[in-house]
Specification:
about 260 residues; alpha+beta; S-adenosylmethionine decarboxylase
Amino acid sequence: MQKLQLHGFNNLTKSLSFCIYDICYANTPSERDGYIAYIDEQYNATRLTEILSKTCTIIGANVLNIARQDYEPQGASVTMLVSEELIDLHDIDISENPGPLPHSLLLHLDKSHICVHTYPESHPEGGLCTFRADIEVSTCGVISPLKALNYLIHQLESDIVTIDYRIRGFTRDVHGIKHFIDHKINSIQNFMSDDMKAMHDMLDVNLYQENIFHTKMILKKFDLKHYLFNTKMEDLCAKEHKRITNLLWKEMREIYYGRNIL
């Protein structure tokens, strides 16, 4: 295997990982099975490969290797090893600000990988279905994968998102001094667009001395009609509207807080 020439080499590893949850209500067992089948088709390994390949093209990364797998009874995984093209290090923005939105994203990854895993599932009796996508972007270089956060979240509509960002290892400067972080960061929220922050309630848990940052977010409000699978609003009475809305909010809050609510 031919070795790749590294440039602007930086030993710091910056890992961005996040879970995106999408909640749905399916009234009957057959509708729940239909939802799982729909998600499995929409986000199978082939489709996920297309999404990540396009993402790599947009951010200016070269795909070195792809591993993908569909699972039985449902779910899929795709992992890509990627590298960046030669760039001028002075052109890289490492300041703490939101990354570009989908229409204008242009970033570079260096000696890195992107992976996604999907987990569609349903409540056996309650009518609730949850689709979870785990995404990780890990880079070794001067840029932060946080610059790709806005683009990735905008590609998957989400009700709840949990985000972890960590800088590991160290790199040395020309004088031999170790550097354990190479950019300023106060909060993951500062890398998010205003529209995203306006739509979600957010909470931070940060360990600054360990270079570990955590943010979780949940929708402030939602329109029930977008959460019904094969069911129309007009086919439900006002009492059912309220019952299903309460079920959805309970599911979202349980995922957000990481505990069951009785």
